[in-house]
Amino acid sequence: MEYVTLNNGVKMPMEGFGVFQVPDPEICKKAVLDALHTGYRLIDTAAAYGNEEAVAQAIKESGIDRSEIFLTTKLWVSDMSYEGAKKGIERCLRKLDTDYIDLLLIHQPMGDIFGAWRAMEEAYKAGKVRAIGVSNFYPERLADFCLTVNTQPEVDQVELHPFFQQNKALETMKKYHVQPEAWGPFAEGKFGIFTNPVLEEIAKAHGKTVGQVILRWNIQRGVVVIPKSVHTARIEENFEIWDFELTDEEMQKISTLDTGRSEIVDHSDPAFTELLHAMKISD
Hints:
Blueprint: E1 3-5, E2 11-13, E3 17-18, H1 25-38, E4 42-44, H2 52-62, E5 70-75, H3 82-95, E6 103-106, H4 113-125, E7 132-135, H5 139-148, E8 155-159, H6 167-175, E9 179-183, H7 197-206, H8 210-220, E10 224-225, H9 232-239, H10 248-255, H11 270-278
Parallel strand pairs: 3-4, 4-5, 5-6, 6-7, 7-8, 8-9, 9-10
Antiparallel strand pairs: 1-2
Helix pairs in contact: 1-2, 1-9, 3-4, 5-6, 7-8
């Protein structure tokens, strides 16, 4: 496992395990246990996923010391205010059954994100959070945010995969010393990604799977990845990316797959914004 050092000095694993769309408590707990036993040490959840408690149970049952695990969660849109974020942080700490969160993110750039950020800064200074960051902040939003707040975000978690490579986003993050992290690194299985001839050719050359090549590609771009699966064999397979390296030519071939847009979600659609605001997270 390789690590990156965030702009506040905290070390973060470059590969983690995500639990998006795994609401069933038992399935989620087993998947996280499998991931931890495989060697993953970064676990990524969110208040909106509805599985923070299952993640907490898995961590406890794993027998792995809490200090060895890099635990990430995210505050939802309905908590985007100063008071809302304060309550949201305490709720996350309670559901995760932990004294501190390693990385706390603003899940969506909606609502009073600046008020919420002040509450997150206070939690950071109080030792309840080791690092704070954002998610789904596109380049113009991230630049504005970094130029406005007192504490720079450590991470921006955005959609990053071979068909939506977001080079401008990566350039903006580099400029403001923000670590990129990829959600949906497999494009949620869209575009026939696992049977793409370019990726298949590269995978064959290394004796690896297409999924392993995709993860390795993002890693070599300096991007943290958080693949998700509930299947033990796939969880183990996704972790086996540290014994090979893509060539410059292979990286260039993958760069030609970029479509320049997302086919998963349109953050510019007002209806999507309305949908997210309508979703409430409460006790």
